[in-house]
Specification:
Blueprint lengths: L1 E5 L2 E8 L4 E5 L10 H7 L4 E5 L17 H14 L6 E5 L1 H12 L6 E5 L21 H11 L1 H16 L8 H12 L3 H13 L12 E6 L4 H13 L3 E6 L6 H4 L1 H14 L4
Protein name: Alpha/beta hydrolase
InterPro entries: AB_hydrolase_1, AB_hydrolase_fold, AB_hydrolase_sf
GO cellular component, one term: membrane
Length: 275
């Protein structure tokens, strides 16, 4: 366990194993522990790196009043530079998939590969008319809810709203995984919850047609249909992309079906050029 100093805080990260660098970026209001099944599987053959994004886990709050996916990507770049990692393999889940997408946009051929679980390009996962997002923003309502009811209750309300439109369990099909996710959300302060939501909502997805990095996109069959559609778009848009759906799993697909996710990732990693 170590920390990378930032101008307004410190970024917590952990490394295990030796070999090609395999870097994991977790989803919104989660933390690096969400990748534990993958770390345990790959640490014998790879140098695994997990981090807690600003506002999450052991990194916790930082001094800025506003977050963005670009800021989170800046932090990822700083960590890669700090660890002197070249040609990393980047694994992002949900919010983490946005961070990886932004990194690939900036560096279309620098990463050796990318694995995106529960990949999403926008919040909400629909195309809104240009210029309308600020006028439709749910941020005031999210801020009021988080301030009065806390992060976990606000998150549960969000999940219920999504499930009402999809009819699926969406987040996870496993009660233990859901409980762990809720515990992680409960560790996030209401102020940080609002800043993270703002980063997700304001994210404008980059075009990825110039990206040369081999990319695997994985979704669960219980994932929200609009999110799955966006994942297929990512796999189609990058130069070398594949899309995979795993049965009996939701948004947290790497935890719902860890062995299947690890097997698919191992097959994908076997295609990559030696680092």
């Amino acid at each position: 366990m170590a920390e990378l100093p930032l101008d307004d805080g410190a970024l917590w990260y952990d490394t295990r194993g030796d070999g090609p660098p395999l870097v994991f970026v977790h989803g919104g209001w989660m933390n690096g522990r969400a990748w534990q099944p993958q770390v345990e599987h790959f640490a014998d053959d790879y140098r695994t790196i997990t981090l807690d994004v600003r506002g999450h886990g052991r990194t916790g709050a930082t001094g800025l009043d506003r977050y963005s996916i670009d800021l989170f990507t800046d932090d990822l770049e700083a960590l890669l530079d700090h660890l002197d990692l070249e040609e990393p393999i980047l694994c992002g889940l949900s919010l983490g998939s946005m961070v990886v997408q932004r990194y690939l946009d900036r560096h279309p051929d620098r990463a050796a590969g990318a694995i995106l679980g529960g990949a999403v390009r926008s919040m909400p996962p629909i195309d809104l008319p240009p210029g309308t997002k600020p006028f439709l923003s749910p941020l005031p309502g999210i801020a009021a809810s988080a301030s009065m009811m806390g992060s976990e209750t606000t998150f549960r309300s969000m999940l219920c709203s999504i499930r009402a439109t999809t009819g699926e369990r969406w987040l996870s099909v496993d009660s233990g995984v859901r409980a762990d996710a809720m515990e992680a959300v409960g560790e996030v302060s209401s102020g940080e919850f609002q800043k993270v939501f703002g980063a997700l909502y304001r994210f404008e997805p980059p075009a990825l047609d110039h990206v040369e990095t081999p990319t695997l996109v994985v979704h669960g069959d219980q994932e929200a249909p609009l999110v799955k559609r966006q994942g297929r778009e990512i796999a189609t848009e990058v130069d070398d992309g594949d899309w995979l759906e795993l049965s009996r799993s939701g948004h947290l697909v790497n935890q719902d079906r860890p062995q299947a996710f690890n097997d698919a990732s191992t097959t994908f990693l076997g295609r990559l050029s030696p680092t």
